[in-house]
């Protein structure tokens, strides 16, 4: 599915003429490595794992994880990042499913694989040839919200294509300093936030945790965050204003509420970049550094990617900015399939080679995308209408007393499904919020039930876990 990478995946590290320029290549917390130190430490890892079918990495927020991933990429050994907080069952599934032969990191009682500790002080001057661009770079495991996590096989060329497409859209160069504190076992934090920096040659500052004070102190030009991170930063106006000197603020992994978008602009002077993607496609859609940044919209397809909308019968839907359809993607960034699961891979693809994202969206006449949500939980069929949960959530978030909102559809004998909103905020009037939505949207889109909660269930990347809300609502009926 992937085209050949135009340059080695770790371009900046493999450019022998680049040399060290006095800057740290990587900083994680208070630990740093220059370009040469990173290459030599990662090559020492490569020496110990060369020839393995794959290597599992204890993907902690540490400089060892960056070294381990770099070592795998140098050796041409597929890297399998394992969330450090995964339970024994999930970790065991990932290790068995990936057939990893080595565990990179500290020894664990429940990991029987040969353990290779990662030593930031180790050095090797060995040289390795650049692997074939079509070979596997990483096996990323999905969140497993609809079953056991699936291994997403990503080639070197797919990763290179995705990073180059974003570099072009964001004008991302070695002159940037990238700052983030996101997990190093997801596409956002690891592939964009670590491999991306190594490909572009921009120093990486990983703050270990994405706290407002850490972001403010980092003095970067390019910042990555999820909506939860940006919300916490905006709750600390001094920290937010410290980011005014940055070049780009990027938000992803979950929808950025429009009021939060506007608050970021107010405090930092920057309209944030928003982008969309998933493990199977990498990042495929983004607003541009030199283009329009529209609240609630995630921009257009990056170079090398095409998108389309279809209805339930697979027929094309017009790109008119209003009609909701199933989003499908094709291009150079697509995965090579689900590991050991050809049936699931075939099920996820159309006959003409487009990936079915499972998301619903609208696209306008200029190619701008607005993601409505997951078809499985965010397309609500109520009273004969098809209603996007995201539209109702945005309407609720426009209420001054609502801080967070999640909308689901639950079975209803009369309507088919009725709209239920879970709300975090200071408004506790069950009648006020439905009326507020009805004054903004069509009356049939108003919530029929409001549930006030202290927090919404979220995963490590800040996405609301709506299946938990649906299951809880069903259990309480």
What do you see in this structure?
This protein is an alpha/beta fold and 477 residues long. It has helices at residues 11-14, 35-49, 63-75, 88-98, 156-170, 187-200, 212-217, 227-234, 237-241, 258-268, 342-348, 375-378, 389-397, 432-440, 466-475, and strands at residues 26-28, 31-33, 55-58, 79-82, 102-104, 115-116, 136-141, 151-155, 178-180, 204-206, 222-225, 248-251, 273-278, 282-286, 300-301, 305-310, 325-331, 355-363, 369-374, 379-382, 385-388, 402-412, 416-425, 449-452. The protein has 2 domains: 1-373, 3-Layer(aba) Sandwich (Rossmann fold); 383-475, GMP Synthetase, Chain A, domain 3, CATH 3.30.300.30. The protein has 15 helices and 24 strands. The strands form 6 sheets. A 9-stranded mixed sheet has the order 2-1-10-9-11-12-13-14-15. Strands 4-3-5-6 form a 4-stranded parallel sheet, sandwiched between helices. Strands 16-17-18-19 form a 4-stranded antiparallel sheet. Strand 22 (402-412) and strand 23 form a beta hairpin. The protein is globular and about 70 Å long. 50% of the residues are buried.
